[in-house]
Design goal:
two-stranded parallel ribbon, elongated, two-stranded antiparallel ribbon, 200 residues
């Protein structure tokens, strides 16, 4: 009877230890299984990324060829190889020429990305005449297929400062905004707006 109480305590402690050992063994097995799943997922992700990069390289290569054909055709129009252009036609050709140049720059970036397998694109900043830059953006924006009840307009200061930017990236941002506006605006107006704040 005197030994019963310490034996009960020992038995309880032994039961707890056995249960803890079972839990640890179960956890170790689950960790091993999860690690194997993660390794398999990682290998699948690596292979998927390799295939995506390869497809991107092939796609951009084909796009560059098509852009070259368009660029050559526009160049022939600019050189009046197919006849004289009136003022309106000349403005349309200039707009198309500028847009093709920007598309070509974006495609070149994608092509370089696919070759180097980087996760980000390089930023190439240059001193940019913002009035000239936004004038070109206004020309492209005016050429978008706006709805009948939507007007595109611009309110841009004539004395904007020169800024150091990556014009290709900034144009990409503005074109995304204009494209969304063109898609979701059913009436009213869309405005390209830029003002110079002397305090900044």
């Amino acid at each position: 009877q005197e030994d019963l109480e310490p034996l009960i305590i020992f038995a309880n402690q032994a039961a707890v230890s056995i249960e803890n050992a079972r839990i640890i063994a179960t956890l170790e097995l689950r960790v091993q299984e999860r690690t194997a799943e993660l390794e398999q997922s990682w290998q699948s992700a690596v292979e998927s990324n390799r295939l995506r990069t390869t497809m991107l390289g092939q796609l951009t290569h084909d796009m560059r060829n098509s852009i070259s054909v368009v660029s050559l055709s526009i160049d022939m129009l600019n050189k009046l190889s197919v006849g004289n252009l009136n003022e309106h036609q000349h403005r349309l050709v200039e707009r198309a020429d500028y847009a093709v140049d920007q598309i070509a720059a974006l495609v070149d970036n994608l092509f370089n990305l696919s070759k180097s397998e980087l996760q980000s694109l390089d930023i190439h900043v240059i001193d940019t005449d913002m009035n000239r830059f936004l004038e070109q953006m206004q020309t492209i924006g005016a050429g978008l297929p706006w709805r009948d009840h939507v007007t595109f307009r611009a309110d841009v200061d004539s004395n904007l400062p020169q800024l150091t930017i990556d014009p290709v990236r900034i144009q990409q941002v503005i074109m995304n905004l204009l494209s969304n506006a063109q898609k979701f605006t059913h009436e009213g107006y869309v405005e390209l707006y830029a003002k110079h704040n002397d305090s900044n």
